[in-house]
Amino acid sequence: MGGPGTPESGGPECRDPSPGAAALILLLPATTLHLLLVARSGPARLLGPPPHLPRLSTLWSPRVLLLLLAWLGLQAALYLLPARKVVEGLELKDKSRLRYPINGFQALVLTALLVGLGVSAGLPLGTLSEMLLPLAFMAILTTFIFSFLLYMKAQVAPASGLAPGGNSGNTIYDFFLGRELNPRICSFDFKYFCELRPGLIGWVLINLALLVQEAELRGSPSLAMWLVNGFQLLYVGDALWHEEAVLTTMDITHDGFGFMLVFGDLVWVPFTYSLQAQFLLYHPQPLGLPTALAICLINAIGYYIFRGANSQKNTFRKNPSDPSVAGLETIPTATGKRLLVSGWWGMVRHPNYLGDLIMALAWSLPCVPVEGHSMRLGKISASAYWMSRYGPDPLTFTTDLTPCEPLGLSHLLPYFYFLYFFALLVHREARDEQQCLQKYGRAWQEYCRRVPYRIIPYIY
Ligand SMILES: NC(=O)C1=CN([C@@H]2O[C@H](COP(=O)(O)OP(=O)(O)OC[C@H]3O[C@@H](n4cnc5c(N)ncnc54)[C@H](OP(=O)(O)O)[C@@H]3O)[C@@H](O)[C@H]2O)C=CC1
Ligand SMILES: CC(C)CCC[C@@H](C)[C@H]1CC=C2C3=C(CC[C@@]21C)[C@@]1(C)CC[C@H](O)C(C)(C)[C@@H]1CC3
Fold this sequence. Notes:
Blueprint: H1 18-39, H2 56-59, H3 62-80, E1 86-88, E2 99-101, H4 104-120, H5 132-155, H6 171-177, E3 184-185, E4 188-189, H7 190-196, H8 198-218, H9 223-241, H10 250-253, H11 259-272, H12 275-282, H13 289-318, H14 323-326, E5 330-332, E6 338-340, H15 351-364, E7 374-377, H16 384-390, E8 401-404, H17 416-440, H18 442-450
Antiparallel strand pairs: 1-2, 3-4, 5-6, 7-8
Helix pairs in contact: 1-5, 1-6, 1-11, 3-5, 5-11, 7-8, 7-11, 8-9, 8-11, 9-12, 9-13, 9-15, 13-15, 15-17, 17-18
The structure holds NADPH dihydro-nicotinamide-adenine-dinucleotide phosphate (NDP) and ligand LPDX5YLU.
């Protein structure tokens, strides 16, 4: 999403960007709440109206806010622990480089240990799954306040610290895109912290809570729930293991830290990326072993392409004479950097997006078996926790499952992530192409000629 005056947008004279930004500021939180409500409703219709509108008293909860702040505090404390490695980011406008701690995987492991200790001491992790609505609501409020503070902080930031896109002078638009590139207090980098810690680790914790809740309700977690948890844990573990690679993404090097990324990191990722596990808790799906193995294979293929492509580029950028990439064909560019034209990057221009998309598909498939019977909520029985907090709610869990018609493709909800992600990556790819064309000019055109497909070979 380029700013007015940037090549992506076509210049400030084109149109006022604030209505679009304002609409997204309202629509994104509304969509999140809609998705959470729909996932727990019987018919789970993505495109229909929400099954009911929750009362404000069911969303507003100071206790849940405390829990959220404790989570953010814990992750911030883990971020500040001594890191096994500290690396420098890319060069900034003023020729300086920021330093970043590499301890994200350590934070994941320590969080897992703390949660494990808590559970063995009687912490009811499963009840987290019943707090998702108020938790998402309080996270949305926190996001608004945090983005406002970031906007204010940018007023006193030096011009060299501002992002290229979010400084148009249009308040709503700049609030949305973010003014400051790398907002920090001392060495604490807010964007880097939010991109990889509370949201990503929160996502797998929510998934785990849904798995635990399913085990409590039905005796054991379903195979589909195991698969979704396993696949997404692998994805998050991989992101934190290769934490350093995030420093070269456009989110860190180009985009300001405003509402869009704050909301994306702290609300969108944990609450909508866990939608498949949420769906499965309320709509358990029987999954045969052969189908499960086929889905694992699809995920493994996706991961192989995603990791292979990302590692190949990262290794090449760090050390082009590394033996694993030294034999690959390249094109020279005027900047002195070279572009890979063989290996993964000779197959399509964004092989890492292709792998990511294949994995996204594999995450949806356990939720929509094509064979056998789907299960849906039968008799309704709210849990004691929910009843005490919110009163009887016809949308709460049951252990009593009744078969219903196979969901198959008739249900879009489990595919929501895939569809959204496809749109996100197509948009992201177009932005990246613009930036690469500007950076590399004719060399990029030559690359496009030699590697004509963007994401999907022979199709797109
Ligand atoms: N799950 C999620 O919600 C999201 C996941 N992602 C994932 O994050 C990962 C990173 O994605 P993203 O930051 O968008 O971009 P990429 O990792 O694809 O990086 C793009 C950059 O790579 C370099 N590059 C492009 N082509 C070549 C080539 N042929 N040879 C060498 N270098 C090349 C260019 O930068 P330069 O030349 O300057 O090095 C270009 O700007 C992806 O795997 C993506 O799928 C991204 C967004 C959301
Ligand atoms: C709210 C909007 C609709 C969209 C917001 C977009 C954000 C959710 C994504 C923008 C780039 C992201 C990345 C990851 C997560 C999603 C967001 C924040 C990422 C951390 C996921 C794990 C990957 O391995 C990665 C490469 C580290 C990703 C970096 C980009």
